[in-house]
Structure formats: structure tokens, C-alpha cells
Amino acid sequence: MWFVLTVVGAVVATGVTPKARAQQNQAPAPADLRVMPVQGSVYMIVGAGGNIALQIGDEGVLLVDTGLAQNADKVVDAIRKLTDKPIRYIINTHVHADHTGGNEAIGTLGSRVAGGNVGAGAGVGAGIIAHENVLNRMSAPTGEQAAAPFSAWPTDTYFTKKKELHVNGEAIIIEHQPAAHTDGDSFVHFRKSDVVSAGDIFVTTTFPILDAQRAGGINGIVAALNRLIDITIPKEKQEAGTYVIPGHGRLCDEADVVEYRDMVTIVRDRIEDLVKKGRTLAQVKAARPTIDYDGRYGATTGFWTTEMFIDAVYNDLSKKK
Predict the structure, then answer these.
(1) Domain ranges of the chain
(2) Would you give per-residue pLDDT tens digits along the chain (321 residues)?
(3) Which of 6, 222, 234, 312 has the maximal Cβ count within 10 Å?
(4) pTM value?
(5) What's the per-residue H, E or C state across the chain?
């Protein structure tokens, strides 16, 4: 049976600059946290910033993303309304603060499973997992000031195409999607529950957000969406089956991803054709390559406008290869 669990509280987005970091402000204000069961052992938490996936089982709790820092207490309250099991793992789909902001507060409340000849502090705090590029962005590998405190860093990283876990009796595959929304994006696939947490590669609320400062690109977005379609399986007549938790927006299935992928591909191809013809950015904007989709995904104000999207795609496709 489907139900919604509400955690009362205001969601206040932090003030950051738009464009490349705009997605960090996507949480509405004010709003309540909502928790809904997806299927299997997976739940979805909405309203803390980016969407959060929550897996609960005998071993404890696994989170995919943690929302904005100021909403960490509400996220914990929402979890505790479902279970008193310890928080064992946090997986970050990418680096942005609306998905990693709660790492420190939530992670320090957890405890990881440790055994054998390990250090004294090995079982303290939840294990935080992400692609190595997320750690590189959050830490200070060049000696500069770190973007996040050490306790928020994903110190359990992977650098290959994928990382595999087995938690709460379920196989979980974390799969890197290079140069998409950022350079550190991952899908998290709960195999038994048949749920994929997609991060901000797939959203239902806006055109794709390309973080050029962190090596995001439109072709990487398209490739990642195609991969997401590969790993989702619909039920009869293209509905239900594998559920997809987007970075922002409503719960989806494969048909929704296909529709979004088609939109992104069409707009990308239109802009690419104009770039190849030598059109300027102003001429591309005048051609209105997104006109068919502006009513659903476009915006003239806010953190990520249609104009910002066209700017980002044009600049990406105009780069010398």
C-alpha cells in the first residue's frame, strides 16, 4: 500500500550563484519532507534538497544522497519514523551540496560494519561512497581550502566503471557516468528491489543542468540517459517495472526516461546542426531550439533558465575537440 509520511519543517535553500552551481538551490522553500515507498526495500525522501533514496533491511539503513545540510535533522527524523536501525552507508550520486550537504551530520550518526584487523575508529560513522571525482571536488588535492569538512568526504571511492555492494540481502551496483551532469555522476541500481537512483543526470523539472566547471557535457548526458534506459525494464505496455528516482521531481519509470532522453537528443541535435553551420549564440537563441519543450521544462527566471541551458549546450558543442 502506498502512503506518504510527512516531516514538518521549512526547507530553505542556501544562496549560491546560478549557472554551474544552480542545482544546489533546487529545494523549494517552504516545504515538508515526504517519504514514500517505491518498491522492494527502497523508499524515496522528497523535499530535503535533491531526492534521497533510502534502503532499509536487517543490516541497517543505506542512503543515496543526503540533501541540503540544514535539512539533515529532518532527514534523520524521517528515517527514524520508519526504523531504528543504524545508518550504515551513504552513497553520493555527485558532488553538489543539495545531494551531499547532509553527509557530515547524518554520517556521524551512523556506524559501519567492520571486522578483522581494523583501526580503532573503523566502525565509527557511516561509510560514505562515491566516485573518486566527487572526493577530488570536495577535498583539496591541490592544497587549496577544502569545499567540505573531512567528515563529509566520501572516503570510500571507486575509479573503475562500477562498484558492487551487497547490503540488506540485495545486490547494489554503483555505475559511473562520465562527463554528464558533472564528472563524478553515478547511478545506483538496487537489483532486487528493481529501483535506480539517477541523481541529477535525470530530472523531471528542468532541462538538463550542465556543470561545465565540473566537466559536465551534453553528450555525456545523452550517453548516460541511454545507459539508464538499458538498465531499466518496463512491465507490460511500458509502465511500471523498474522505477527511477530522479535527482529532482516525481518518481518515474522507463517510459519517462525515454521521453526525457528523446527531448534532450532532439534539442542537442538542433543546436549541434546550427553550430556546424557557423551560427552565433544569438542566432541559435533566436532559432528557439527548445520551443517544443519550453512549456514543460523551460523557465525565464530562477536557478536554471532555458537561456542558461542553451548557453551551456552551445558552449559545450562549440569547444574545439
Answers:
(1) 5-263
(2) 333 444 444 333 333 334 445 444 444 453 489 999 999 999 999 999 999 999 999 999 999 999 999 999 999 999 999 999 999 999 999 999 999 999 999 999 876 654 444 343 455 689 999 999 999 999 976 667 788 888 999 999 999 999 999 999 999 999 999 999 999 999 999 999 999 999 999 999 999 999 999 999 999 999 999 999 999 998 876 678 999 999 999 999 999 999 999 999 999 999 999 999 999 999 999 999 999 999 999 999 999 999 999 999 999 999 876
(3) 312
(4) 0.87
(5) CCCCEEECCCCCCCCCCCHHHHHHHCCCCCCCEEEEEEECCEEEEECCCCCEEEEEECCEEEEECCCCHHHHHHHHHHHHCCCCCCEEEEECCCCCHHHHCCHHHHHHHCECCCCCCCCCCCCEECEEEEEHHHHHHHCCCCCCCCCCCHHHCCCEEECCCEEEEEECCEEEEEEEECCCCCCCEEEEEECCCCEEEEECCCCCCCCCCCCHHHCCCHHHHHHHHHHHHHHCCCCHHHCCCCEEEECCCCCEEHHHHHHHHHHHHHHHHHHHHHHHCCCCHHHHHHHCCCHHHHHHHCCCCCCCCHHHHHHHHHHHHHCCC
